## 1
Amino acid sequence: MQTHAAPTPPAHAPRGGGARFGILSWALWDWGSASFNAVIITFVFTPYLTKGVAASEEAGSSALGWSMAAAGLVIALVAPAVGTRADSGGRHRMWLGVHTGIVVLSMLGLFFVRDSPEYLWLGLLLIAVGSVFFEFAEVSYNGIMVRITEPANVGRVSGFGWGMGYVGGLVLLVLLLVLVIQPEVGILGASDDGGLRFRIVAALSAVWFAIFALPVLFTAPGPESAPSSDENPIRAFISDYAALVRRLVRMWKDEHQTLRFFIASAVFRDGLAAIFAFAGVLAAGSYGFSAAEIIVLGVAANVAAGAGAMIAGLFDDRVGPKPVIVAGLIVILLGGLPILLSDERPVFWVCALVLSFCVGPVQASSRSFLARITPAERAGENFGLYATTGRAVSFLGPAMFALSISVFGFQRAGVLGILLVLLAGLLLIITVRPEGPRTALRG
């Protein structure tokens, strides 16, 4: 096993209590961002759009799918250049603030989406815009992680951030359930009239995100150089894309392992996303869960995933991210098989929690893996590519899920399609070798 001398921490990395405070401030963004992922995208607002706003659930679901596909295409095309732009002078903090602000504004705009079909496209547009800029914000957010960590603690920090996101999501879901969703008249007069209950949920979620996003915008490392005041934005964008093409050519020639990691992680991350995307569908269709029970399942899944991410971060720093990723994928594959064979609720509950517990570690260690092999000056660029490759195959999980159901004729068979995607990702990541600590790449 190859060993490396302990690298000297970057000059901009805070030490001691300052480092801990900086990391906590950074992780609070993850805590707040769960308001968009868990509340708006997964459990509350998009179901309101497809059931309460659209003329029919089928029409609403189809429209939502197309709008999210369009958002994914924009992300795939633009995210790498966004990352390169953030790398220019180390301006991750500034771009994180800009992109987070746009996401918050899109969430606030959802307050005006009433429960009538003519408001459907407004809701879809706002969610698509929020999704695009959320992904852009994550590029800069991950770039900041590279600047506030060292190779010795990047696994723990990445796991801590993922864990904070899951815990923040479950805390907000519980608060909204108790204060807004369940009462006949919730806080701020929330009721079913005009979809007000869900519109208030969107506004409160936006405020939640804004509050917890503020600390990192004050504590993250600032720009390393002043931006050029006479730079033409269009020319700069074209220049960034040209640099991206040169980067891909260079990776093909000299950084095979990094390129292979991008491909492998794109495949298994799509499988992981499909687990959460179709968990509620399976719970309702194959196991008869009510809407309230699905929300409880979501809360439990967030708890399990958050705990798994935090615990696995310790192993990540001791044995490296790749063993954590491989072990997590193997457990997920084994844990998903009983769902194919049993329609008993206890079996589904146990499997769902096992899968959730392992999803967090695989996600966190995937980010840690990239952070370890990424030079700080290329953080935005590489995490932009990370976002792009993650979207590039986003059709795999849903397509395999649907295809498996069509072939075998029952809903639980869709799990087989997801497991096949994860198996492909596992086989691909096994062949990837880390290229050494990121400090060695700075040249």
Note: Confidence is low (pLDDT under 50) at residues 1-17, 437-443.
## 2
Amino acid sequence: MINPSPSDLNHQAKADLRHRLISARQSIPPQVWRQKSDRICEQLLNWSYFRQCRVILAYTSFRQEPDLSPLTQHHQHWGLPRCVGKQIHWHYWSTQSPWPLTKGTYGIVEPHPQSPRIDLSLVDLILVPAVACDVRGHRLGYGGGYYDRLFAQAQWQTIPAVGIVFEYARLPSLPQDQWDRPLSGVCSESGLFLAKQ
């Protein structure tokens, strides 16, 4: 009998935790989900840095992720991700955009392929979807590795990135792999928790 490697055990621990946490999130009643999402938006709006950002990268809510769409009424310049192969392409989006959002890879709503691409030099903040984050900023994603590959690139390592989760998914610790990079902070309905510099 072959004993599983630490890497295999870590992978299985992440998969089990991911399944449990997504199931818990999808069981949140719609009214409670809306209230919690609105509270997260309030936490971000109260952050002075957020209000000064030029372009903010975010996401469209999928499988009852926290919904950040109310923030579009308070900030004009947004970027949304589109999955292309193994990479994320970022496109400008606004409520006045002539390009409609469309259902893309994995059934996630994403920008139209012909909508303008983001000038990365203008990006001041990334709001990162997550299954969970721990108190040190480590993130449990969905297993596709899109954000791991993104944050491994040098140009992304200086841009603040904040994980967005409901408070039940802000955990004391998460299983980690050697390539996992902590985020700059975590925001839940209970508060904005920035890493100490």
Note: The domain at 6-194 is CATH 3.40.50.10420 (Rossmann fold).
